[in-house]
Specification:
Elements (H helix, E strand, L loop, with lengths): L1 H32 L2 E11 L4 E6 L12 E3 L5 E10 L2 E6 L5 H5 L5 E5 L13 H4 L3 E4 L5 E10 L4 E7 L7 E4 L5 E5 L4 E4 L11
Parallel strand pairs: 7-12
Antiparallel strand pairs: 1-2, 1-6, 2-5, 3-4, 4-5, 7-8, 8-9, 9-10, 11-12
Length: about 200
């Protein structure tokens, strides 16, 4: 009986340890994910030798060629063997994915890169991933409009989509032009703007 009781203690300790380890690893990965940025998505397979087609989130699909390693959201690392481009898509062969059945397992997976591997941008230019989540504040009254939730690339100028702090259903659409955008502080998580006439409509 004494041995059985000790066995139960050891089994229980293992379960507790496993749960603690799981939470620690999850915490570490979440911290690491804060240093990652989405750059592409695997949308389908290509051929029978394990290649995949990737939709890019860059200014141009050729920008993906600057990176030889990508990460999945579970931390797995994918090493590029070959990459080519076709109709605004990247056709990528990753190491260890040797046939279409293997490649199928990666369909709809998002690809990440480390933010530290991105090139420095000129002053006043920002990565979209860094803008998402910024608090948007009016000057000079300091009123919080809401949180920047999306960036629309219209061709003429970008438009910032802001989810309203007052709970209104109608989102604010803020043009990314110097007359409106006063300051973007990525470190502080704040964007300050001066609305032009008619820009801010408080009605739902």
């Amino acid at each position: 009986m004494f041995q059985n009781r000790m066995s139960v203690v050891r089994d229980t300790d293992f379960v507790v340890f496993r749960e603690v380890l799981k939470h620690v690893l999850t915490y570490i990965w979440r911290k690491l994910m804060n240093k990652m940025i989405e750059i592409a998505k695997i949308v389908t397979t290509s051929g029978v030798k394990g290649a995949v087609k990737c939709q890019h989130y860059c200014d141009a699909v050729e920008d993906l060629e600057n990176f030889s390693v990508f990460f999945l959201d579970d931390g797995r690392r994918l090493q590029v063997e070959t990459m080519r481009f076709h109709k605004n898509m990247a056709i990528v062969k990753f190491s260890g994915i040797e046939n279409a059945n293997d490649a199928e397992l990666y369909r709809n997976k998002t690809l990440y890169i480390e933010k530290s591997s991105l090139p420095e941008l000129e002053e006043g230019v920002y990565y979209i991933d860094d803008l998402i989540g910024l608090k948007v504040v009016c000057v000079p009254d300091g009123r919080v409009l809401g949180v920047l939730s999306d960036v629309l690339q219209t061709g003429a100028n970008d438009v910032y989509v802001v989810d309203r702090a007052d709970g209104g259903k109608k989102q604010y659409l803020i043009p990314a032009i110097p007359d409106v955008i006063d300051k973007v502080d990525i470190d502080e998580g704040v964007m300050t703007i001066t609305p032009i006439a008619g820009l801010i409509d408080d009605e739902d």
